[in-house]
Design goal:
Layout: H1 3-13, H2 18-33, E1 47-51, E2 53-54, E3 68-71, H3 72-80, E4 84-88, H4 94-101, E5 106-109, H5 121-138, E6 145-148, H6 150-159, E7 167-176, E8 179-180, H7 195-203, E9 207-214, H8 217-221, H9 225-228, E10 229-236, E11 242-249, E12 254-257, H10 263-266, H11 278-282, H12 287-297, H13 307-313, E13 321-322, E14 331-334
Parallel strand pairs: 1-4, 1-5, 5-6, 6-12
Antiparallel strand pairs: 2-3, 3-14, 7-9, 8-10, 10-11, 11-12, 13-14
Helix pairs in contact: 4-5, 5-6
């Protein structure tokens, strides 16, 4: 990318601010793409799998006929970014995950409230799908993953040979800006971020944090994670604790965020301090993370063996339950 070595120094010499530099670099990116020789076939009907979770013990009596769930906000977030959804059930054999991951085009690992360890169905499922996703990418199939909060935490543990670097931090009900670890356009995760979205994430209290555990930069760099993953942003809590806000894999289209991008538009619990202000919502800065997942999913041509199999697998076969009075989610799909 020659313009980083010739154009950027010239811009800096001209004393342009970073916003203007970002605009000009976006122009260069578009210019370069205009001369791309290799065209990539785009999947115009992507399907994203969302991993389910066990219903919490305190809620089991509310749903006696069900054992697992998906919060509807994740489904809405994926659909808003232009994809259909298939629930991916926990506590299944590896053959099940191989079959479904060869049928869908990407995967969301949602947030929740459970602990890592063998025997935990959600954690065990994350181990399996992480292995399969790496194999798919190694074999030439673009298969993206987005981990959110608990999904982020479990990805870090699994990717670190199941060594847990997380430490207790209790960052709850906090809306925070992020600090990019390097110029945002240099990371894969933030490479398509608009200037408005970057400003929203960096300067407004726009990311929703509900997590007991944090990963810190020093522990990350001293672990095996540093070999395959890289930190893309950090946040600082109201107690002045800096923690890693987002990461990406250096080789595969795997992204993970400690915060909850889906809550800004789709969760409305008045006690959760979720930001719904116009500058944050309309900037689509939180939706961007699902947009980026779908962008890579469209490079994946996996499909179900038949239309009937696809139709029978989609989330449309289930009905979301209104659960705001009994859980922290506005709506849930229970299975």
């Amino acid at each position: 990318m020659w313009y980083f070595y010739f154009v950027l120094p010239m811009l800096l010499l001209c004393e342009l601010n970073m916003a203007k530099i970002a605009i000009l670099l976006n122009i260069f990116f578009l210019f370069q793409c205009g001369f791309c020789k290799k065209s990539v076939k785009v999947n115009k009907s992507p399907i994203i799998g969302i991993l389910s979770q066990e219903i919490l013990f305190r809620n089991q009596e509310l749903f006696p006929a069900s054992s697992h769930f998906i919060a509807a906000s994740y489904v809405k977030a994926v659909e808003s970014s232009g994809a259909k959804v298939v629930p991916v059930v926990i506590n299944k054999p590896e053959s099940y995950y191989r079959n479904i991951m060869n049928s869908v085009n990407g995967l969301v690992l949602p947030g929740g409230a459970t602990f890592p360890g063998d025997g935990n169905p959600y954690y065990d499922s994350v181990k399996i799908v992480y292995k399969i996703a790496k194999e798919l990418n190694d074999n030439g199939t673009t298969f993206p993953i987005l981990g959110v909060c608990l999904g982020y935490e479990f990805l870090l543990i699994v990717a670190n040979n199941e060594n847990n670097i997380l430490k207790r931090c209790n960052v709850s009900h906090e809306n925070l800006p992020i600090t990019f670890e390097s110029p945002y356009f240099q990371s894969t995760l933030f490479s398509r971020l608009s200037i408005r979205q970057a400003h929203t994430l960096q300067y407004l209290n726009s990311t929703v944090n509900f997590h007991r555990w944090c990963a810190h930069k020093s522990d990350f760099h001293n672990s095996n994670l540093n070999q395959e993953w890289k930190i893309t942003s950090t946040s600082t809590s109201l107690k002045n604790t800096e923690f890693i806000a987002s990461v990406e894999h250096k080789k595969y289209p795997f992204f993970a965020v400690q915060f909850h991008p889906e809550k800004v538009s789709f969760e409305w619990n008045p006690d959760h301090n979720i930001p719904h202000s116009e500058p944050i919502v309309l900037a689509l800065a939180n939706r961007y993370f699902y947009d980026q997942l779908i962008y890579y999913a469209k490079k994946n041509s996996n499909k179900f063996s038949s239309i009937d199999e696809e139709n029978n697998s989609l989330i449309y076969n289930y009905f979301p339950r209104f659960t705001a009075s009994v859980t922290s989610y506005l709506q849930m799909y229970v299975f």
